[in-house]
Amino acid sequence: MTWSIVAREAETGHLAIAVATRFFAVGGVVPHIRGRVGAVATQAFVSPLYGTDGLAMFAAGKSPEEIIPALTGRDEGRDQRQLHLVDARGRNAAFTGAKCIDWAGHLVDENVSVAGNMLAGPQVIAETLATFKKTAGRPLADRLLEAMQAGEDAGGDKRGKQSAALVIYRDQEFAWLNLRVDDHADPLGELNRLYAVAKERYLHVAETMPTRDNPSGMIDRREIDERIAGLEAERVAAGRPSASFATPLKPAS
Question: Fewer CB within 10 Å: C terminus or N terminus of the chain?
Answer without folding.
Answer: C
